[in-house]
Amino acid sequence: MYAEGECQAWYNARDTVLIPPHFSGMGWVWKDTMGKIQFMGSRNLRRRETPLHSELEALKWVMESMIQHSTCQRFGTDYKDLIAMIEQPQDWPNFSTELEIIQTLRLYFLYFKISYFPRTHNEIADSLARNTRSFHRSLCFIGCSIPI
Is there a contact between 140 and 46 (Cβ–Cβ < 8 Å)? Predict the structure, then answer.
């Protein structure tokens, strides 16, 4: 009887104590042809099995977000393996499910390109990602200026 009571107390306490999940942050910026920022976004995602899984999840979210704004997109990343995955998906069988989703999303874009940009060349997106990681609850933002 005592063990059952302790077990029930543990379950009740588990439901009321907020344990912050582990999040990884991502940020993106959409610039027009003149280099002026039009939109930006940030989101924290639950950490995935590997950083590469998180990068794929972030790309998926950015693509889904941009479909409604433009069908011609050039995407940038500071993760060279992500570019290799998009260009040669057959070489990455452990990511086949995620890559199939990315390939399907690509169909919505008349023009799609992904290029390498060092993190130092995209400081606003990097700042958005770093700030997003500090939140211990779900966060998703898309807007025209940096959130306060």
Answer: no
